[in-house]
Structure formats: structure tokens, C-alpha cells
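hi! just following up on the protien thing from before. the input was this:
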Amino acid sequence: MIKRINLCMLIILLVFSAATVQADIYDAAFPSDSTSYSSAFNGTGTFGSNGGQGVPMYTNGDYVSQTFTGTGLNSVDSLSYNVSYVNNLGVDESGLSPGTALATVLLDINSIPVSSFIAYDTGFSDSSYNLINTVSFSPIVGGDTYTLSMVLEYDVPMGCGNIIFEEGTWTLGGETTVVPEPATMLLLGLGLVGLAGVRRKFKN
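and the predicted 3d structure came back as:
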């Protein structure tokens, strides 16, 4: 009886230990219609409620943010992004030349800063400034759910208009747990039982 109990415990242990951790990624469109925004001049809302248009960001603390569920990632330790922004159209009263730094934008995951970039004056030319980069950081454990945010760290200088982010492509990189399918676990269990039976037969 004790031997049978020990055998069952061994089978259960091996089945659970069969789960493996492996690298994986999750691709996200951000900003999108589901993206939330908060702006000192424009209040709060979502891009979808704003007609799918980007929301001007002027002031320190203005942000766009979106939560992604069902990523399948236990933790995240890298972020790749390809995102664009423009200045609002108008007359540039700042006297700054296109390419001049306007503000720092922080990148957060689950309210944890992971990187930042400088937003530059695009010269009110209606042309996008494209940003492409990959950053690595200490693992952030999110339990399958992660919130991406872009936050202005400084005010956009007076006369420089504002910054409007366009939809970009973001990739979260991290680890996921792969658990064997029930059929695989059943075969493993039956195999162990069979081996135990053969061993007992030889003993007898």
C-alpha cells in the first residue's frame, strides 16, 4: 500500500515538473482606439471616443496608457517599439529649429519606468518622427497582464505646439510557462505505472 502511494506521489511530481519555462513575445498595437489618455488641456478619455485621433500632450504628467491582458507572459524583461509622433499643425512661434528636443517621454510597464526617449520638434511639417528601439530591463512579473504607458516628463516649451502619438507596434518579450497537455501527462503516468509493474514482475 505504501509503495502504491509513493508511486502515485512520484507520478504527480513528475507531471507537475514537466511544465517548462521558455522565452516568448507578445505583440501589441499602441496607441489604439482602446488607449486611455490624460491631458491637462484635454481631460481624460480614450482614443476611440476621440474619433481615433491622437491626443495632444503638452504638460508634464500627460500620458497615454493601455492594459493588455492574456499576454501569456509570466514576466517581461524586454520591450521593442516602433512608434511615430507629430507636432500639432500651426505656426511655430518657438523660434526653435526642427530637430530641437522638446520633451522627455518616459516608457512605463505596470507603472515601472523601463526606458525613455527624447521627443524632437518636427517643424510643424505634418511629417512623423519615427522611433525604433529595443530595451532590456529587470524582469517585471505581471501575471499575464501588462499596462504600457508613455508619460511626458517635462512641459513642451511654449510656442512649440504639442506632441501627438500615432499608432505604433510594440513587442513585449519575456517568459511563459508551458504545461504539457492532459493526454501527454496521462501517457507519462501510464508509462511510469507500466515501468513499475515490469520492475515488480522481475522482482517476483
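DSSP finds two helices and eleven strands in the chain.
The domain at 21-203 is CATH 2.60.120.260 (Jelly Rolls).
cheers
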